[in-house]
Amino acid sequence: MTVPAPRPDWGEIPAGTQWPDPDTLVLLNRDLRPGTDTSRLSRFREDQWDLSPAVFEDHARAVTLNFVQIPAGLRTTAKYYVWQLLNHTEPRTVRSAGGARIAVLTVSHLFVNYLRFVLQWFAEQGVTALSQVTQELLDNYLDALIDDAVPLDRCYRRLTEVRRLWAYRNTLPAGMRLPGAPPWAGEDTHDLLGRTRGDRENRTRRIGEATMQMLLRWAIRFVEDFADDILTAHDEQLELHARMPEQRRATGTQAVPDDPRHRPGELKQRIAAYLDDLREHGEALPGARDENGELKIRWRHLAAILDCSGALRTSPTGRMVIESGLPIGEHTYLRSPITGGLDAQPWRHDRIRYEEAPRLARLLSTACFVIVSYLSGARVGEVLNLRRGCITHDEASGLWLMSGLYFKGAEDDKGNKIPEGRPRPDPWVVIEVVAHAVDMLERLHPHPLLFPRSIEPHYRQRWENQKRQGAARSHHTISNDLAAFVDWVNAHCAHVGRTDSIPDDGRGKLAPSRFRRTLAWFIRRRPRGLIAASIQYGHAHTRMLQGYAGAYESGFPDEYAFEDWLFRLEGLAEDEEALNAGENVSGPAAEAYRYRVAAANREFAGRVLTSDRQARDLAGNPLLQIHHGEGMTCVFNPATAACQVRGSADDPMVTPDLDDCRPKCPNLARTDRDIEHVSQRAEELAEIVADPLAPPLRHARERHELARLERIIDTHRQGPTAP
Predict the structure, then answer these.
(1) Residue 549, exposed/middle/buried by CB under 10 A (0-12, 13-18, 19+)?
(2) pTM for the whole thing?
(3) Over the stretch 64-80, which tens digit does the pLDDT of each residue have?
């Protein structure tokens, strides 16, 4: 590669630094997607750099850097600096750097969100070369961030970007470098700002309970009740579309009215039979209103149905249609019947329209996404990159397994991101409804990806020349699909008078990135209410946290740990308030309960977490091992627990099985709140025991259980010193 002579005010190019000339490829040292047209790759001289060929995630959007957005005086410096980010290993002077290259998507994120801001601010201060930046100017930059009340997380990142510019100074000539002394004398960012960043500050909100319940319920309705009708209609629509006259011309299979494939008179017989069928069922000819509002026959559609050319309208056989006397309809309905039901009624009373079939197919695909993404706990990108054949059933264990790629944390031995991702060493463990949703997706279209950008094959050619490389839907697209799904459900409910629409949770856009935290919340809380299609969150807990999906690399255990942490702190606050109000506690673990509640509130009340992993570690603290069940409280000690614990004793996520609680377990305690539940159960048993017509065996069993509950109640009422 020819190295251009540096400008006099730049200084010498550092030895060992790879330096681009105007025609140098932007992605010189990057792996490229298979099939990339290298003649179209961006060159250094251009002001817009297309990075998409180096992005392997099929769900990623087009990635372009536009240097016109950088002030003119610093634009050339920015291009050389970003080229080094893309093609040079990360300097050891960057904190936590491992000598690897920054991922391409990360470079784009840094450019768009932080570097542009930093350079714009420098330019506003009159800086035209980074060598002009002084420590005083950096102090002013820090003051400006604080004075402008920039959110804490953004402050951290904008300060970090200045540190990154300084760290790469040895790859740039002197005129492009920040001063030799570390910015702000190397002082830590949390000391500069006087606050510690918590990674949870801008955390994506979970989806509200009622919203998630109904979203999942309708998604499962689509898959279990509507899918067969939608699939059949969609197949018919695709077949008719392929037989449309313009499609025949495009593929060279144009038919003629007297097509030799038809025997003489066969087309007339077809038309006669078709018209008779419409009369018999009281249906109209396929039609639509023109721009003047007049109903017109849809001749293209008729030609596709009858498998003949678009000249049908002016042919002798076409006059049979005109002279049939049949009315012209407002819509064009497919012939596929409606067989699915909802609440013992057909889910719709009219057949699916030709134009409606692709939309319903897309809604079905979105319903499948809701089920697969939400009930697997997989990351959004991992779900969008799933491929056909990803589901298997392990007959020995009875588990449904979902395999796929992971991208986060997929690195080579040098710490470089593996752009094409890696197969998960352990599959996700899912429940059967997820496997059923994947089966629907595989029936819906022939694409190798489960969630392609388009379900209809004839639309895919539109993207052949687009910069975006991936064939899967993007985060943005699937978010729009979710919004369209909710709109359809709510419009359908309003049209037919249903009351089970999907409510707005008031927490912003229904983004797919919110599913993981929401699932963790549901598994931890297991709220009562409408759980669609009998989804058992306790079962999901066992499958996902104790199965393969519980592997730490999946990331989901951290999501669950954070929700578990919040849940336990809320419970401890309620427990302390009850104890301070004089609540009595009985049972063998009563003293341990009082101690843990008081000690845990002293230790953890008001504590701020800075990472998911910290929540996971803290959740294993013995002080937090208080689990409320029905009529009992478990002051959990895995070494003495009588139940079958979930997990191993040395696992911080180990929990008791509250459904397997044993009456003589030394971990049991009972609060006044527990005794209210026990008393209610005792009253129910007392009515059964008092029934003289009860079967003798049942009478004896219930009388024995009633006596046990009464002893528990009496012991509890003896006071706090009761054994």
Answers:
(1) buried
(2) 0.70
(3) 999 999 999 999 999 99
